[in-house]
Design a protein that fits this description.
It comes from Plakobranchus ocellatus. This is Histone-lysine N-methyltransferase SETMAR-like protein. This protein has 4 helices and no strands. It is an all-alpha fold. It has a domain of 63 residues. Helix 1 packs across helix 3. The radius of gyration is 21 Å and the shape is elongated.
Length: 91
């Protein structure tokens, strides 16, 4: 089964393709709604992606998130585990 991120990337790809063909955002949303049903992203999100795809060189558009600095998803690494283990054993 596809994850929500996989489904989002698939839908963005469809938006990119249909925007390149010249379809309107409303038409793209209606067509995707018929296929994806409740899993379809909102009309507002479709319009945002159409603006992005029409404003950029389509060959340069990247659908996946770019790396950016932020808090790590997990703070669990060997050094932290060892520190916590020592604290627990000391108690």
């Amino acid at each position: 089964m596809a994850t929500s991120n996989d489904l989002l990337i698939k839908q963005q790809s469809v938006i990119e393709f249909l925007a390149a063909e010249g379809c309107s955002a409303a038409n793209i949303h209606a067509r995707r709604k018929a296929v994806y049903g409740e899993m379809c992203i909102s009309d507002c999100a479709v319009r945002k992606w159409v603006r992005i795809f029409k404003g950029e060189d389509l060959s340069e558009t990247i659908l996946r998130d770019r790396k950016r600095s932020r808090r790590p998803l997990s703070a669990s690494d060997t050094a932290h585990r060892e520190k916590v283990d020592c604290m627990i054993r000391a108690n």
